Amino acid sequence: FGDSTSPQTQSNCSGSTSGLPVATMVKLTLCFLPFFAGLATAAQVQVQDTALHHVIGHVKKSTADGFVSSLVFKHRLRVCNAYPFEEAMDIYRAVAPHDDLPTGYGPRNAHPLIKLTVDGPMDYKTCRDFLTPMKAGDKFKFTVGSYNAGTFAISDLPNNDAVLFLVIYRHDRLSTAVSFESHVFANLLNAQVAIIDTYKGDMKAKPQIRDAPTKGLSTRSEALKFNSVVAVNPGIYQVSLVGKKGRNSTLVANSTLVALNRQSYVIIRTGVEPEHGPEYPQALVVYPESDPRALQSVASHRAVPFAMLVMMVAAMWA
Question: To 5 degrees, how large is the angle CA 137–CA 141–CA 143?
Fold first, then answer.
């Protein structure tokens, strides 16, 4: 849903595109989810538990006496910092004509940027949801200390309620340049999960999902594919990165996914084996971390076929 630039990689990454494969899973009931992603140049990201909603209201009256109203959609920005670096990252949004400036802000030309990370910068391997108005053409600036890491511009927004996901990560192993990848989650009943690979290195690993162990019930597992979207039934799942050591499989990383209806989740493989500088090992980021108490009955959901309902990709642009 956007374009991005980085002061170090405009010539290499800005405006680049990448296609996502349409993936299917056997023995599963298939349906379809739109997946819109964009690659660009980026730096670093963070994760946070609470989901803040950009609630403007669904209907806005056009006049005091009129009965015709215009629709206003709810767009929520979700950002993850997958850029391996010891310093945290701040995010700013460029002031736009549609902004209702926060208290304390003076003339627009005096404050060209609005800081989104007011609760503190985002550490590596964290995510956060932001309550901020968004329109096509808006730009988001990512900084580390006094340095500009990159800028992401929204090229278009869907005409429906949606979660806009953006991850910033390392572009390659040689430089410290950044890349962005974006995705728009559809407004669906089932929980949606986007699986993203931001790791840069030689190590090979594949993501898997399985039922969380429950007494008296068998545990089922399925392979996942990077750069894809799946829909799952409500429940508690174990997500793993499985690598190879000789002929044997090894567990690289493991995390828990608590899936709730109408929620959008991301599973991100992070890490880098750089040509120079410190190494950051492979890890899994799962966001948001939903409260398992919100599940009425895990056992009742386990009675249906395995959680996977969907795996598909529809379109992508930068």
Answer: 175
Cross-strand pairs, 249: 244
pLDDT for 217 beyond 90: no
Q: What residues contact residue 316 under an 8 Å CB cut-off, 6+ apart?
A: 17, 18, 19, 20, 35, 36, 37, 38
Element (H, E) at 268: strand 264-272
Q: Return the closest-CA partner of residue 279 out of 270, 289, 267.
A: 270
Between CA 265 and CA 119 the distance in angstroms is: 22
- What is the rounded average pLDDT of the residues 214-230? 88
Give pTM, 2 decimals.
0.73
Q: In percent, how much of the chain has pLDDT > 90? A: 51
CB atoms within 10 A of CB 165: 26
CA 219 to the chain's CA centroid? 28
Longest CA pairwise span in the chain (Å): 74
Q: Which amino acid is at 167?
A: V
> Which amino acid is residue 161, in one-letter code?
D
pLDDT, tens digit, 9 for 90 and up, residues 73-126: 788 899 999 999 999 999 999 876 656 655 555 555 555 888 999 999 999 999
Q: What b/e string do you get for 18-47 counting C-beta neighbours within 10 Å, with b at 16 or more? A: eebeebebeebeeeebbbbbbbbbbbbbbb
Six-digit token string for 69: 């109203």
